[in-house]
Structures are given as C-alpha cells and as structure tokens.
Specification:
The chain is α+β, with helices and mostly antiparallel strands. The chain contains five helices and eight strands; from the N terminus they run ββαββαααββββα.
C-alpha cells in the first residue's frame, strides 16, 4: 500500500494498493467484490469505502482509494466515550447487512451454532460491555434460524473501521480483500469483541 500526498504532508489524499508480483489476481477479485456489493439492496453498502479506480500495468494490478480523514480508534476517548456508541451502531449496521445481502447458501446449522455461542457468552458474563450487542444478536438469530448466507467482512477489527465524526455518528468500513458473500450474520461482531 502506498499513500499519496497532494494537499499537505499530514493526511494522505489517496492510498494505492498494488500487487507485489505480476499476474496476481487478489486485487482484481477485490474489485469484483466491490462490483457485486454495488448491486445488493439496502443502504448498508454506503458505509463501505469503494475504490475510485482499478487498473493493470505491466502485469501488476492496482486499486486507488480516497484516503478519508478519520480519527484513530484507541486511547482514553475511544475506550470511555466512543467504543460503546460505535459498536452499537456497528451492530445495527450488521443487522442491516444480514437483512439485505442474502445469498443462496443455506445457513441453518451455522446460525444455530452462532446462537449457541452468543448464549454461552451471555451465560459466562464474558465482555459485559457487549451485553446489548449480544442480546441483539441473539434476538436476530432466534428470529431467523433458517437464514441464508450473507455478506461477511471476515476481517472487521478496529484498523478496518474509519471513524469520521461523533455527531452524527459517521464511520466507514474498509479492506474487503477477504470478505465473503456466504458468511453468517454477526460473525463480524465476534471479531470486534
């Protein structure tokens, strides 16, 4: 990944992902995933950072993204003032993702396992700050046990969440290199917790 500075030296304007070796397809596949997301219903996809341009040169593929100015998700402010609000919004976003990105892949058994995992977390009192999110996840799974597969980021952690502003809460999700359209709802929530 290369950062491109045009206006000032503190914040990059763009970042460029380039394949290290010629002939590798992972950036083309990432672009194809973005193209597929564009045709899915729901507003959930507005939270995903889309590439501005895809190209190939001398066998190397590259993706150009706008570098959104964002706040880091660490430190005292994040831990005490932002974390619960942001993760609550992310939970709502994940519900919207699950409701609007179904694929034909049947997920009954995996959803049942996920529901059991949520219940175990609640029973053990693991991560009490996530109690509300676990409750929402359990309610969602309980109502939708015969779900199909959904979009799953599969690498959703703090470095892939760009927090833009607090009021109104605004954030974006980046780096879809390992995403899947046959994932199961709320798996990304467990990565966060």
């Amino acid at each position: 990944t290369f950062y491109v500075f045009l206006k000032n030296k503190k914040q990059p304007d763009f970042f460029l992902k380039v394949s290290r070796f010629p002939g590798l397809r992972f950036l083309r596949e990432e672009k194809e995933k973005h193209d597929k997301i564009a045709f899915l219903p729901g507003v959930w996809k507005d939270r995903i950072v889309q590439p501005l341009f895809y190209g190939e040169q001398a066998g190397h593929s590259f993706l150009l993204y706008s570098a959104l100015q964002h706040q880091p998700l660490h430190g005292v402010f994040f831990r005490f003032f932002l974390k619960d609000k942001l993760y609550s919004k992310l939970t709502e976003w994940l519900i919207d993702v699950a409701q609007n990105s179904e694929s034909s892949f049947r997920m009954a058994e995996r959803n049942k396992e996920a529901l059991e995992g949520v219940q175990r977390c609640q029973d053990l009192g693991v991560l009490p700050q996530f109690e509300e999110m676990f409750r929402k996840a359990k309610d969602f799974f309980g109502a939708q046990l015969w779900r199909k597969g959904v979009f799953q980021h599969r690498d959703l952690f703090r470095e892939n969440i760009l927090f833009l502003k607090l009021v109104p809460m605004d954030y974006r999700i980046c780096d879809l290199a390992s995403c899947s359209f046959e994932g199961f709802p709320f798996a990304d929530l467990f990565n966060l917790s």
